[in-house]
Specification:
alpha/beta; eight-stranded mixed beta sheet; six-stranded mixed beta sheet; globular; binds flavin-adenine dinucleotide
């Protein structure tokens, strides 16, 4: 095991994947600095599911209990027919997840989670650093930021999301493709929910043929409810990453849906709309001193609620490879990383894009029961194969 504290590791992007990789590297004693384009993070209106597969990684970081206390712990994931309300699946979570998958299944506010995940980084996190250009001289990498500053690094981890600059440096400029679907996102306060004589289930996905609404609580106190949709929309012609939507647009998109969904739309004070974008599987995940993770590497439609989970699993596997294989021969280390991630990440990407996950009764143990630390590392093949599973939609 080689932990060379002199190796300068730069992480580009402090999203959930970047925060995870930096915190795990720090914990292992590496010298890491994170560069994030945003000036600060805000608690935007979005929730997230975190599966037991990722809670085990938070355990390693010493953050599991804190995160677990903040989140809602649904007993089930229900899938229901959007029109009739009939149950299509009842997937056991709660105590079942603890007993069978080795950790809790939670739903939580994304901003609350992110804040906890950033907490170990301290002064190693640099805000307001938008990467503009990379110069890889072979011996080290120059990182040039839009504010005119530059730093040198030995290893660069691209955790900079779907529009990754690091990906662009590896593979050239290419816009992600718009999938033809948008996601609406809204947070509803507990007070608004109490206006209705209705029972709001802690984690439920309402489905019809071409659209859905996923709904869940984002706090342990269950005083904040969140929905995120998938709705077809032929074109996305906005430059902004998201736009405001409206209650009227929601009524029209979910016309005929069950009365519970109508209640949620009625309770909506503010709703945003996001384009769902995608990429074809990348032919490589690393080159020389640069390596990718998360959405920079394998973006997906969010319908399996595992996109960020895959970014965090990537982070954990990459750090594991850096510890077990070392950082001197980083190219071999990165091959180990890819060999131990590509199949699983591509499978999740394909299922997520197809939007079939838990629609009917199925066993999710291959996904939720996974432990990134459990099995011995798989050796890389001579030539790593591009992912076969994923279909970009
Ligand atoms: C509607 C919706 C719902 C979702 N729900 C879930 C869910 O329930 N569960 C789940 O696991 N996943 C979910 N996802 C997916 C998840 O959000 C992404 O897969 C995840 O955020 C990817 O993390 P990341 O760290 O790779 O990238 P990002 O979260 O995109 O982070 C990238 C970071 O890099 C920064 N950055 C970008 N470019 C630069 C640059 N040039 N220089 C410096 N910094 C830069 C960005 O500001 C950002 O902070 C959802 C996604 C959407 C759209």
């Amino acid at each position: 095991m080689t932990i060379d504290k002199k190796t300068r590791i730069a992480v580009i992007g402090a999203g959930l994947g970047g925060a995870a990789v930096a915190a795990l590297l720090k914990k292992e004693g590496f010298n890491v600095a994170v560069y994030e384009q945003a000036d600060k993070f805000e608690r935007l209106g979005a929730g997230i599911h975190i599966g037991p597969n990722v809670m085990k990684i938070f355990r390693r970081l010493g953050l599991e209990e804190r995160i677990s206390l903040m989140g809602s712990h649904p007993e089930f994931w229900f899938s229901r027919d959007g029109l009739t309300g009939d149950y299509m699946s009842r997937i056991e979570l709660g105590q079942y997840a603890l007993d069978n998958y080795g950790a809790a299944y939670i739903t939580i506010h994304r901003g609350d989670l992110h804040e906890v995940m950033l907490s170990p980084l301290g002064s190693d996190l640099h805000f307001g650093k938008k990467l503009d250009r990379i110069e890889d001289s072979g011996d080290e990498v120059g990182l040039f930021f839009t504010d005119g500053t530059e730093v040198q690094a030995d290893i660069v981890i691209g955790a900079d999301g779907i529009n990754s600059k690091v990906r662009e440096c590896l593979l050239g400029e290419e816009e992600p493709t718009y999938s033809g679907w948008v996601a609406h996102r809204a947070l509803i306060t507990g007070a608004r929910l109490r206006e209705f004589q209705n029972e709001f289930e802690p984690c439920v996905k309402w489905w019809t043929e071409d659209r859905h609404m996923m709904v869940y609580y984002t706090t342990g106190k269950q005083d904040e409810y969140y929905y995120v949709t998938g709705v077809p929309e032929a074109e996305w012609n906005h430059d902004a990453p998201w736009v405001e939507s409206s209650r009227e647009e929601m009524y029209s998109a979910f016309d005929g849906y069950h009365s519970t969904v109508q209640n949620l739309i009625e309770a909506t004070d503010y709703v945003t709309k996001w384009p769902l974008k995608n990429r074809k599987p990348l032919p490589l995940w690393s080159s020389n001193r640069l390596v990718l993770l998360g959405d920079a590497c394998h973006p997906m439609k969010p319908h399996m609620a595992q996109g960020a989970c895959m970014a965090i699993e990537d982070a954990a596997m990459l750090v594991r490879c850096m510890v077990e294989v070392g950082v001197d021969d980083y190219e071999t280390t990165f091959k180990y990383y890819e060999a131990n991630r590509v199949e699983r990440a591509s499978k999740v990407q394909a299922i997520s894009n197809a939007n079939t996950w838990l629609k009917t009764q199925e066993d999710p143990s291959w996904c939720y029961g996974y432990d990134v630390y459990a099995d011995a590392l798989k050796e890389p093949q001579q030539e790593s194969q591009p992912a076969q599973h994923a279909v970009a939609e």
